[in-house]
Amino acid sequence: MSKDSQHKLSPLAGVIFFSRWLQLPLYLGLILAQAVYVFHFWVELSDLIGAAMGNESALKHILDAVTVANAPRPTRLNETTIMLVVLGLIDVVMISNLLIMVIIGGYETFVSRLGIEGHPDQPEWLSHVNATVLKVKLAMAIIGISSIHLLKTFINAAAYEPKELIAQTAIHITFLLSALAIAYCDNLVTRTQNEAQKH
Q1: How many domains are contained in the chain?
Q2: Would 42 be classed as within a structural domain?
Q3: Would you call 127 exposed, middle or buried from its count of C-beta atoms within 10 A (0-12, 13-18, 19+)?
């Protein structure tokens, strides 16, 4: 039997299998979203540098971005303000990393192989990615993003009601427990598969 005949699909199976390409515009859209995040990062960074060099317009933009409602507005660039801006930049980077994992890992897992095996720039995690591994990595990235937001909230804790602080902390703990549950389930599935292969 020839190789082509082995891989020949029925018309219905072919349509269903081809439908995975409908996800392609979604991943292309995420690439555009990534470009927006890159632009936003450089705008914020240029404003921070401008404010540090005495640019009043850049300072106003920075203070508008970090000032929380019901909190006193700072009048100059201080350590707390710089920390909040840098945390915002880290937040953008972590969300960008999350986008990369979804774009590359999702495309590789659900659409088509990228064919980059052996490439020197191949991401280490991509060599063993599957739907479950991708979920664990996404959960860990979301925890990192949540941690940044929680830290920003705690820096401005005086501007928040206690119930808001408790709610944000509870949400963060929920993310953490969810990630642990996903990782535990992944470990169980992997262990079960390894035991089945031994027998």
Answers
A1: 1
A2: yes
A3: exposed
